[in-house]
Amino acid sequence: MDDEFVLGGHRFKSRLVVGTGKYKDFATMKAALVASGAEMVTVAVRRLDLNARGEASLLHWIPKEMVLLPNTAGCFNADDAVRTCRLARELQLGGENPLVKLEVLSDPTTLLPDVEETLKAARQLVSEGFRVLPYTSDDPVAARKLEEAGCAAVMPLGAPIGSGLGLCNPYALQMILDQAKVPVIVDAGVGTASDCAQCMELGVSGLLVNTAISGAQDPVLMATAMKLATEAGRLAFKAGRIPRKLYGNASSPLSGVIGAR
Amino acid sequence: MRATINGEPLLLPEGLSVLSLLAHLKVVADRVAVERNGAVVKKARHAEELLSDGDVLEIVTFVGGG
Question: For residues A189 and A164, is the Cβ–Cβ distance under 8 A?
Fold first, then answer.
């Protein structure tokens, strides 16, 4: 079964992208990454702690074959996000057109995206050759503008980051899917496996999940559940579901029932 | 020479390059990226890029994130 997910010059079999944040330790993180089947993982760019040298590096615990997707998490304006992406490109030491997850937030309480600043940063980054995957609101207009700015995908939220509320507005997501010519990845909001399946059934190209795995009581088991749910949702989308109907529709013949006159 | 590194003011020896700064700070250079006064200093230029008084530097690495 060939159902590859092509994104920014990479070909993926897995449609589940996972984060590397908030695990209790690196060993659990690695086990969860492997269990998820993910082929791309997000990483953050932060100041090096100059007083704590020689400790284990994150990269040591990420399987070599996984593609790194640096993010701009924590940035609240376009300039900081652009600088973070340039540093991420330097950190990867290779590839002139690296994938970056552009995330420009509006405030620390809602963590909702600042679409205006995101769009500004996206235009700049695209002009510098980055393959930009922008985290955005579930607004179809914002998604369209980001696509027009040359982004390699659009990544609307299902719900606020880390909220675990699941897909709050499937109708908005459907509009984004209907118009998009680039891959649509649901980023943020997933709480459990059924949320993965629901998003995939609507036809999104992929999912990005962090907290729902790292914060689960058993992250490795949840990673496995989400891998299966993502695959199941994808298969259901491709299979084509039956239309919803208000009334019943018998699955056994109505004729030939014993005792009929 | 004064410089601000990762938000902290530091007093440094004169005439440091980016490369010698990283050695001075005992940083493993393979795993970091350096920005000087808002612009990335590519690794290939670490040895020749000399610091000036008042420089603002960011030394970053990858950490876990979503």
Answer: yes
Query: Considering the domain boundaries, does residue B12 fall inside one?
Result: yes
Judge whether B66 lies within some domain. no
Going by the DSSP 8-state scheme, the letter that residue B45 receives in this structure is G
Domain enclosing residue B21, as ranges = 2-60
Task: Please tell me the predicted confidence (pLDDT) of residue B28.
Answer: 74
Report how many domains make up chain B. Answer: 1
Q: Shortest CA distance to A139 belongs to which of A100, A99, A168?
A: A168
User: What is this structure's pTM?
Assistant: 0.92
Q: Rounded to an integer, what distance in angstroms lies between the CA atom of residue B54 and that of residue A113?
A: 34
CB of B9 within 8 Å of a chain A CB? The answer is no
Q: Which domains are seen in chain A, by residue range? A: 5-239 (3.20.20.70)
Taking contacts as CB-CB distances below 8 angstroms, the residues of chain B near A23 are: 64
Q: Please, what are the averages of pLDDT over each run of 10 residues along chain A (261 residues)?
A: 85 97 96 98 94 76 94 97 96 80 96 97 97 97 98 97 94 97 96 98 97 97 98 98 94 90 79
| pLDDT in the model for residue A261 | 79
Residue linked to tokens 């205006």: A116
B54 within some domain: yes
Helix H or strand E encompassing A144: helix A140-148
> How confident is the model at residue A53, as a pLDDT?
61
Q: Is A181 a catalytic residue?
A: no
Question: With 80 as the cut, is the pLDDT of residue B64 above it?
Answer: yes
| CB-count burial class (<10 Å; 0-12, 13-18, 19+) for B8 | exposed
How many contacts (CB atoms, under 8 Å) link A and B?
A: 97
Instruction: Name residue A197's beta-bridge partners.
Output: none
A139's tokens = 């607004």
d(CA A118, CA A184): 16
Q: Does B63 touch chain A (CB under 8 A)?
A: yes
Rounded distance, CA A67 to CA A116, Å? Answer: 28
